[in-house]
């Protein structure tokens, strides 16, 4: 497909950003929306693809840079033979009402008459279908997109993290986006957060000591529970608080069984907004690289992220966040979007994390 001339992109007045379902996807949408709004004066709409429990709404509910938020969650996405739910959806006919909803939502989006649809990282065939049906003048994606050749432009990922990658779109407008313009933000009611944190912590905490938060992560991102326990036992002069969802409850119990240090276990007990309120009261946050890492980065919370096969472009590159990973040089020279399983989270030692804590502590004068 011959790419369109982007000289006329300066005439863009209304933009739709399509982002994925994770917390990190929503947090990284904020600098992009802010720059569209401030640099180009656009109306900015955000479409979340398949949002889990609409948890991203907590992060951007008061965002002044996003004029409208839409969310889609269709069973028709499962109507593919390798989806894992193809037969169930086909024989139960659950997808039929969604077809009507899908058509209605597409017609609503088409009436917006978007000048530009930008698909955030990484992009999927589902989002390609949406973008094609919406009918914007211009379609731009990241080079990670499986259908990138069908777009007007695709943004190069090499050497960039997600925020840098997505905001490189402004180079098409002849604009240089500085580090200051890549700043992460979270839009939360400070007074309400303080009340929420006080209510939760007063219930569990006996001594008002500095708080160090721990989040163990999920699946391939997990660090060994015995290592978490050893790390917690090395922390002195602070209250350790475990946070996370129900899926991490078993890990939290095992960590406590290994630990000599008493911890406050809030895993599976808080909604996302309550977790964020407690996080803002922390002196430091230690986690595996995931959605809460991005929230911590947006809050300006000193953060250590233990990472493994998660590609480097998912690393927050903020002064308050230090990523600890054991990976060879090739890991950081990937030109294509891929997952290199040879970089394992479990290769990171407790001493590696302790040294990272000391370095961050010295750099930020915590």
Structure in words:
This protein is of the alpha/beta class. The chain has two domains: 6-182, Rossmann fold; 190-364, Rossmann fold (3-Layer(aba) Sandwich), CATH 3.40.50. Helix content is 36%, strand content 15%. The chain is globular. The chain starts with 13 loop residues before the first strand and ends with a helix.
CATH architecture of the largest domain: 3-Layer(aba) Sandwich
Radius of gyration: 21 Å
> Could you give me the name of the CATH homologous superfamily of the largest domain?
Glycogen Phosphorylase B
Low-confidence stretches: none
- Helix count equals 12
Structural class: alpha/beta
Q: Briefly note the CATH topology name of the largest domain.
A: Rossmann fold
Count of distinct structural domains = 2
Instruction: Report strand order across the widest sheet.
Output: 3-2-1-4-5-6
Topology record:
Elements: E1 14-19, H1 23-40, E2 43-49, H2 57-60, E3 68-72, H3 86-92, H4 95-111, E4 116-119, H5 125-134, E5 138-142, E6 153-155, H6 162-167, H7 190-204, E7 211-215, H8 225-234, E8 239-242, H9 249-258, E9 264-265, H10 272-280, E10 284-288, H11 291-299, E11 303-306, E12 321-324, H12 350-364
Parallel strand pairs: 1-2, 1-4, 2-3, 4-5, 5-6, 7-8, 7-10, 8-9, 10-11, 11-12
Helix pairs in contact: 1-11, 7-10, 8-9, 8-12
């Amino acid at each position: 497909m011959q790419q369109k001339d982007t000289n006329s992109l300066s005439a863009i007045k209304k933009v739709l950003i399509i982002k994925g379902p994770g917390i990190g996807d929503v947090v990284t949408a904020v600098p992009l929306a802010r720059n569209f709004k401030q640099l180009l004066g656009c109306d900015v709409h955000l479409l979340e693809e398949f949002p889990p429990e609409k948890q991203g709404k907590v992060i951007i509910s008061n965002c002044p840079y996003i004029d409208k938020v839409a969310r889609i969650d269709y069973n028709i996405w499962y109507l593919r033979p390798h989806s894992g739910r193809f037969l169930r959806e086909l024989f139960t006919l659950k997808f039929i009402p969604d077809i009507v909803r899908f058509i209605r939502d597409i017609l609503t989006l088409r009436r917006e008459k978007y000048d530009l649809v930008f698909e955030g990282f990484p992009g999927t065939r589902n989002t390609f279908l949406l973008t094609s049906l919406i009918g914007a003048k211009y379609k731009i994606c990241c080079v990670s997109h499986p259908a990138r050749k069908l777009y007007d432009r695709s943004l190069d990922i090499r050497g960039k993290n997600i925020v840098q990658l997505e905001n490189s779109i402004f180079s098409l407008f002849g604009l240089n986006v500085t580090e200051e313009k890549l700043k992460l933000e979270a839009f939360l009611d400070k007074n309400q957060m303080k009340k929420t944190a006080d209510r939760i912590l007063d219930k569990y905490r006996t001594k008002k000591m500095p708080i160090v938060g721990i989040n163990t992560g999920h699946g391939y991102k997990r660090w060994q529970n015995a290592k978490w326990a050893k790390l917690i036992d090395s922390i002195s002069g602070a209250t350790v608080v475990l946070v996370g969802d129900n899926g991490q409850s078993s890990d939290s119990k095992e960590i406590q069984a290994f630990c000599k240090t008493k911890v406050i276990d809030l895993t599976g007990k808080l909604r996302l907004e309550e977790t964020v309120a407690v996080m803002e009261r922390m002196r430091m946050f230690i986690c595996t690289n995931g959605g809460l890492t991005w929230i911590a980065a947006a809050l300006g919370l000193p953060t250590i992220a233990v990472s493994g096969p998660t590609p480097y472009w998912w690393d927050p590159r903020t002064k308050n966040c230090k990523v600890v990973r054991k990976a060879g040089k090739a890991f950081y020279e990937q030109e294509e979007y891929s997952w290199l399983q040879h970089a394992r989270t479990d290769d990171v030692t407790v001493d590696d994390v302790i040294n990272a804590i000391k370095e961050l502590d010295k750099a930020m004068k915590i």
